[in-house]
Amino acid sequence: MKFVANKMIIEGDALEYKNIEEAKASPLAYQLFHFPFIKEVFISGNFIALAKFDVIAWEEVSAELREFVRNWLHEGKKVVDESVKITTETISQPEKESNKIVLPEFESLGEIEQRIVEILDEYVAPAVSADGGMIRFISYEDKIVKVLLQGACSGCPSSTATLKQGISGLLQKMLPTLVKDVQAVNG
Length: 187
Fold this sequence. Notes:
Elements: E1 2-4, E2 15-17, H1 27-32, E3 38-44, E4 47-52, H2 58-74, H3 93-98, H4 111-130, E5 133-141, E6 144-151, H5 159-174, E7 181-184
Parallel strand pairs: 6-7
Antiparallel strand pairs: 1-4, 2-3, 3-4, 5-6
């Protein structure tokens, strides 16, 4: 579920929290994990995307969550506390490994990779963002594009279909003979 604010919530990179321990640097995310059904919290720009466990329907909790987030932001409470440092010891091993994904700098990419990033940014990212997620280019090798899916897209049942039918099809159409497949590193 995506909650959009009428102002920027954070500046810079998106924040993704998969458990309450990771969320200690974000008072808002930390409190959201106190709802027993919250599975993940993703904060980017002017929105918050929440993933939940399948123990309750969104219809039963969306109004309560919307009110909670709205009040938090209206009261001017901190979304991120820069003074809190999370050490790698607080993050479980599988999450440590996922945090090792290194996103390349645009300037360091070759011509094909830069074109792929431009296509993803122009055509794919806005749609993914509208659904409460984020897509980032990781690599291109042997005609395979690897991307990182975050927020609502990470673990979404539709993400595989979106990758195969949408993103892969778009890249194959715009870069014929250069893209054979698209793979999500975390999906």
